[in-house]
Amino acid sequence: MELPIYLDNNATTPLDPRVLEAMLPYFTSKFGNAASRNHAFGWVAEEGVDYAREQVAKLIGCTEKEIIFTSGATEADNLGIKGVFEMYSEKGNHIITATTEHKAVLDTCKHLEKLGAKVTYLKVKEDGLIDLAELEAAMTPQTILVTIMYGNNEIGVVQPVKEIAAIAHKHGALFFTDATQAVGKIPVDVNADGIDLMAFSAHKMYGPKGVGVLYVRRKNPRVKVTAQMDGGGHERGMRSGTLNVPGIVGLGKACELCRLEMDEEAKRLSALRDKLEASLTTMEESYVNGNTQHRLPHVANISFKYVEGEGLMMAMKDLAVSSGSACTSASLEPSYVLKSLGLSDDLAHSSIRFGLGRFTTEEEVDYAIENTKKAVNHLRDLSPLWEMFKEGIDLSKIEWAEH
Amino acid sequence: MAYSEKVMEHYTNPRNVGTLNKDSKSVGTGLVGAPECGDVMRLQIEVDANNVITDAKFKTFGCGSAIASSSLATEWLKGKTIDEALTIDNMDIVEELALPPVKIHCSVLAEDAIKSAINDYRVKNGLEAFELAKSHH
User: Fold this and answer.
1) pLDDT score recorded for residue A237
2) Name one GO molecular function term (chain B) (predicted).
3) Is the CB of B14 inside 8 Å of chain A's CB atoms?
């Protein structure tokens, strides 16, 4: 077993060697521009892209023509949401989203507010799921888009997308979902789920960085987005720019592997995740964040009360994980996702996200369990809050000096 | 962001972790920060009849830099008189630990903890508390 151990697969995943193998020729011998229509170099590149389009389409149950390649999920979020806002401006200007969305969605919505959009930010319940009745109540005749993520990047909860889509459609709005964490991990079918637009990226599913997809429905209804970049009119005019052929080929291969191996992988990872969670929550005052039924198979987000996340991660020095602690962000604010669940700031500061992946072994999980327990105990020995808790002092009754 | 060697060293081998009897007249306790902000420091000093700090202990809830700052503070406090201890400036800690700008608040908290422990000691012994410069963070 090699150290350190990578348990941050929600941030990014390593490239699967089989994906790399598929990509390599497209850097060297098959280097052509997929838009070069008049020679073999272009045709070969285009063939690679077409094949990848099929592989992607098969994974999410759509047709090849509904796939728009982008530079990643952030661009796909921007193109999908801004593109719909512009295209459907005559119909209305109201967008509904949730407070636990990724910044690529939230900040895009904030940007649109400056351009005249009205945005409703739905709160989530304690388990991280949105309240469908609240969504229904928020719908108006001006609502053009509902954008709710599929699986959450911090806590892994999976939203009831099918029901959300049905509510959006009932009121004549489109449904967009950022499915970056879900595609390739759990079955996502755009028709069964009623998805009109969907964003995801290759590097979260063992593909390369710098390539992603915007799915845009072509039938029932035919959805259109206004291009956000001007240029050569690639990707059916929706996304100009020379195609990243090696990246797209890698994305295609990554999708194929996920389609073939997802079921088994999900079973294996959820068993490992459950083991990790069960062991770590035997420690006093440790809590799993988010709904434990409706969630991705490979994520565990746990708060270890009375220790601070960044300090804890320093003690877990052989483990690459992430924390909702303020100290890990430039803003000094703890995770807005955890706060949206109603977690107090101190619990948000105390959280660690473990993200397992295709290459995580049981031996690594066992090591992570021991290493984490040791670190938590060590830091609790250093923690004045732990000592006070043990003495039975009610910490909420103390007047802390805010700073 | 990578930590400086000195932060790592104090974090890995923190000095003077522990608890002094807070009810003792010769002990001053400073508890600063807030759990919501992600750091809480408790720093304690034991003072002898000559106003010399004979012992110092800390416990800190916070990031590595906060733990290192308080560990360093206890190391510096031991053997100093109260008056000398009051001259410890947070920028001395920043310099010694090579803290990056985003971690300066940890050193400020350590300075506050020192002053607050000294004040607790003074008040316990019938002296007036020093005016604490209010929050630079």
Assistant:
1) 94
2) iron ion binding
3) yes
| B63 is an active site residue | no
For residues A196-223, give the mean pLDDT: 98
Across the interface, of B59, B61, B137, the residue whose CB is closest to A403 is B137
Report pLDDT digits (tens) over A342-374: 998 888 889 999 999 999 999 999 999 999 999
**How close does chain A come to B31, measured CA to CA in Å?**
9
Structure token pair of residue B74: 């206890």
| CATH architecture type of domain A17-258 | 3-Layer(aba) Sandwich (3.40)
* Residues of chain A above pLDDT 70, percent: 98
Mutate to test the interface with A, among B10, B19, B40 (most CBs of A within 10 A): B40
What does pLDDT average to over chain B?
A: 92
Instruction: Please report which confidence band the pLDDT of residue A402 belongs to, taking 50, 70 and 90 as the band edges.
Output: low
> Which one is the CATH code of B5-124: 3.40.190.150, 3.40.718.10, 3.90.1010.10, 3.30.365.10?
3.90.1010.10
CA nearest A106: which of A71, A74, A151, A140? Answer: A74
Range B39-66 burial, b when 16+ CB lie within 10 A, else e: bbbbbbbbbeeeeebebbbbbbbbbbbb
Cα separation, A197 vs A205, in Å, equals: 19
Tell me the shortest Cα–Cα distance from B66 to chain A, in angstroms: 9
Domain extents for chain B?
5-124
Q: Which of A350, A338, A339, A341 is nearest to A306 (CA)?
A: A350
Q: Residue A91, Cα to own-chain centre: how many angstroms? A: 30
What pLDDT was estimated at residue B136?
47
Q: So what's the pLDDT on residue B3?
A: 84
pLDDT at A346: 84
For residues A379-385, give the mean pLDDT: 95
So where are chain A's domains? 5-10+262-397, 17-258
Chain B residues close to A325, C-beta within 8 Å: 38, 63
**What is the distance, to the nearest Å, from the Cα of residue A305 to the centroid of all Cα atoms in its chain?**
26
On chain A, the residues whose CB falls within 8 A of the CB of B60 are 382-384
Q: A153 a known binding residue?
A: yes
Could A345 and B37 be called an inter-chain contact, meaning their C-beta atoms sit closer than 8 Å? yes
Q: What CATH number does domain A5-10+262-397 carry, 3.90.480.20, 3.30.470.20, 3.90.1150.10, 3.40.50.620?
A: 3.90.1150.10
Is A327 within any annotated ligand binding site?
yes
pLDDT tens track for B19-33 = 999 999 999 999 999
The active-site residue out of B41, B68, B73, B106 is B106
Chain B interface includes A402 (CB < 8 A): yes
CA nearest A375 in B: which residue? B12
Residue contacts between A and B (CB atoms, under 8 Å): 92
pLDDT of residue A127: 97
Is B21 an 8 Å CB contact of chain A? no
